[in-house]
Amino acid sequence: MPVRIRLQRHGRKNHAFFHIVAADSRAPRDGRFIEKLGVYNPNTNPATIDLDFDTTLEWIQKGAQPSDTCRAILSYKGIMHKHHLLRGVAKGALTEEQAEEKFQAWMESKHGAIEGKKSSLAEMAAKEQADRLEAERKRNEERAAALAAKEAEANAEAAEATAEEAPEAEATAEAEAPAEGDADTKNEA
């Protein structure tokens, strides 16, 4: 029975996450499996991988073949590197202590790279947020300036209209006043 380490799809449409399982290669993709080894969620950035390291390493040492995607995931988590070092120990090329030192050094460098990526993603998100807030502030200032200009224009037009109406009203009042005076004189006569 050839054993494969592969992904088993779960989740909803367009939002899948996967279980990493050891299964018979003849079993359907989402069907029977021998053992669940972990979970892989590609929807987060960086992708979330929760894996039982020792059990997965044990399956790899027994000869289970990972699928291409699982091989990449196992390499990312260091299981394939650990397997490589343990084969060197079995052949006598390394001692167990040397292999463990090399593995720990590799894990520290990998952890540093992952933390660097997380911090750069957080910085980028904060910068994008600040840029969005600055653009929104500029838009609001432009809108306020346009509104103030529109109000000033409306006030100026209203002032012009009242200024034009005032001389016309005075002229009309003067024209009416002599006419009234003429009417008074006519009435007196």
Topology:
Blueprint lengths: L2 E10 L2 E10 L10 E7 L6 E4 L1 H10 L2 E2 L1 H10 L1 H13 L4 H93 L1
Helix pairs in contact: 1-3, 3-4
Assign the structural class, choosing from mainly alpha, mainly beta, alpha/beta, alpha+beta, or little secondary structure. alpha+beta
| Tally of helical runs | 4
The neighbouring-strand order within the major sheet is 4-3-2-1-5
| Rg estimate, integer Å | 41 Å
Write down how many β-strands occur, each being a DSSP E stretch of 2 or more residues: 5
Poorly predicted sequence stretches spanning 5 or more consecutive residues: none
Distance between the termini: 135 Å
Helix content: 55-70%
Morphology = elongated
* Average residue pLDDT: 86
Q: Main β-sheet, in a few words?
A: 5 strands, mixed
Description:
With 189 residues, the protein is an alpha+beta fold. The mean pLDDT is 86. The protein has helices at residues 53-62, 68-77, 79-91, 96-188; strands at residues 3-12, 15-24, 35-41, 48-51, 65-66. It has a five-stranded mixed sheet. It has four helices and five strands; from the N terminus they run ββββαβααα. The longest helix is centred in the C-terminal third of the chain and has 93 residues, at 96-188.
Quick gist of this model?
The protein is α+β, with helices and mostly antiparallel strands and 189 residues long.
Key features of this structure:
5-stranded mixed beta sheet; alpha+beta; 189 residues; single chain; 67% helix; 4 helices
